TrEMBL record:
Alphabetic keyword roster: Hydrolase
Organism phylogeny: Bacteria, Pseudomonadati, Acidobacteriota, Terriglobia, Terriglobales
The UniProt record lists the keyword Phosphoprotein: no
InterPro entries listed in its UniProt record: Bact_Sigma-Reg (IPR052016), GAF-like_dom_sf (IPR029016), PPM-type-like_dom_sf (IPR036457), PPM-type_phosphatase-like_dom (IPR001932)
Hydrolase is among the record's keywords: yes
Protein name, entry field: Serine phosphatase RsbU, regulator of sigma subunit
Source superkingdom: Bacteria
GO MF terms, alphabetically ordered: phosphatase activity
One Pfam family linked to the record: SpoIIE
Domain PPM-type phosphatase per the UniProt entry, residue ranges: 160-378
Length: 380
């Protein structure tokens, strides 16, 4: 009796050692393919089976012939952390080879270890993929920032400042400044529908087309019209990513500016004449046509404004007005008030004031939309 108990205990120790060694080998790698192949190899070699494979995976080990009466197929389910079966370990043995209780117990224990190892390997793969995506997004963010104006142009009698903050790694707001040989300066603030990488790609395409046209000396209305048709003809996906845009062409020689508003938020122009609260000195430049790319044959109108000494212009995207405190939106009126009553004397200070006002108003934990603004001041 004692010898039987001793023999049984020794067998149990041997089985436990075999399972521990198998577990060590399975968990020694984090590569999914290696984990699966190691499990199959252990199964076939340790129990001396014909072959083995996993359902839902392409890996096999041993002799995997079409199922026939001469073979016995035994299945051991693998479950995830929530108890859902995601694959089965299938072992093949000859018809005259009956798996013992110890072997069945070994295979069931091995299937449990394989479930954990495969889950860890899949998590590692997802982590590596995410890190790769994050690296690509970081690079895209740097590229997008490099395409924004790096140095403000020196415009006689004027001061200019810009700010653009994406809510994700890259954004759909577009900001550009182009100095013309004539001494005029074209400023563009645009907003691609949506956010994130897709909108950023559309914004880059928009930039290429705009710069090509601006540098060729095409009038502002013609630029907006051609870009609208070009964008529309790029297909259904581009139409869903239509662009609201504000084009401004500043002529410091005559202290005037020409503007085309393609479905964009109305910029604020405050003249330097009259009292601070005089409504006549505040102008909102409304849209004269649809957003770029929304309709194939949109027409746009050119408007011209004088810029007397002390005039101030604010161009912005809807990320500045669509800031919330609970259900209450910051809105256009609050933005105008912050801009109108700002006592700052530099455009950088004006932008600081606007951003601080938005921060004080909002109770949102994170920025929910891309935010871009341009402030132009005429000295005097």
């Amino acid at each position: 009796m004692e010898r039987d108990e001793t023999l049984f205990a020794q067998q149990q120790v041997v089985r436990l050692q075999a399972l521990l060694e198998a577990s060590r080998r399975i968990h020694s790698t984090i590569a999914l393919d290696e984990v699966i192949q190691t499990v199959l190899q252990i199964v076939v070699r340790e129990i001396e089976l014909t072959g083995a494979f996993f359902t839902n995976f392409a890996h096999t080990y041993g002799d995997i012939a079409p199922e026939s009466a001469s073979d016995v197929y035994s299945r051991f389910p693998l479950q995830d952390s929530e108890g859902v079966v995601f694959t089965e370990l299938v072992v093949i043995s000859p018809a005259d080879r009956i798996l013992t209780l110890d072997e069945l117990d070994f295979l069931e224990s091995l299937a449990m270890q394989a479930s954990v190892a495969i889950a860890n390997a899949r998590f590692h793969e997802r982590t590596v993929q995410w890190q790769r995506i994050q690296s690509d997004l970081d690079s895209a963010r740097l590229v997008q920032k490099s395409l924004q104006p790096q140095v403000m142009p020196n415009i006689p009698g004027y001061r200019l400042s810009t700010r653009s903050v994406a809510c994700y790694a890259v954004g759909g707001d577009y900001l550009d400044i182009v100095e013309m040989p004539s001494g005029e300066t074209i400023i563009v603030v645009a907003d691609v529908a949506g956010k994130g990488l897709a909108s950023a790609l559309v914004g880059t395409s928009f930039r290429s087309a705009f710069r090509a046209m601006a540098n060729s000396g095409i009038p502002l209305v013609e630029i907006a019209t051609r870009m609208n048709l070009l964008h529309f003809n790029e297909g259904a996906e581009s139409r869903r990513r239509y662009v609201t845009a504000m084009f401004v062409q500043l002529d410091p020689g005559t202290d005037t500016m020409q503007v085309v508003n393609a479905g964009h938020n109305p910029p604020f122009l405050i003249s330097g004449n009259g009292s601070e609260d005089d409504p006549a000195r505040i102008q909102r430049i409304r849209a004269s046509g649809t957003p770029v790319g929304m309709l194939p044959f949109s027409t746009y109108q050119l408007e011209k404004y004088s810029l007397p000494p002390g005039a101030r212009l604010l161009l912005y995207t809807d990320g500045l007005t669509e800031v919330f405190r609970g259900e209450e939106e910051f809105g256009e009126e609050r933005l105008l008030k912050a801009f109108q009553h700002c006592e700052a004397i530099t455009p950088e200070d004006v932008l600081d004031t606007v951003w601080n006002t938005l921060k004080e108003f909002s109770d949102e934990p994170e920025q929910s939309d891309d935010m871009t603004a341009v402030v132009l001041l005429r000295e005097g």
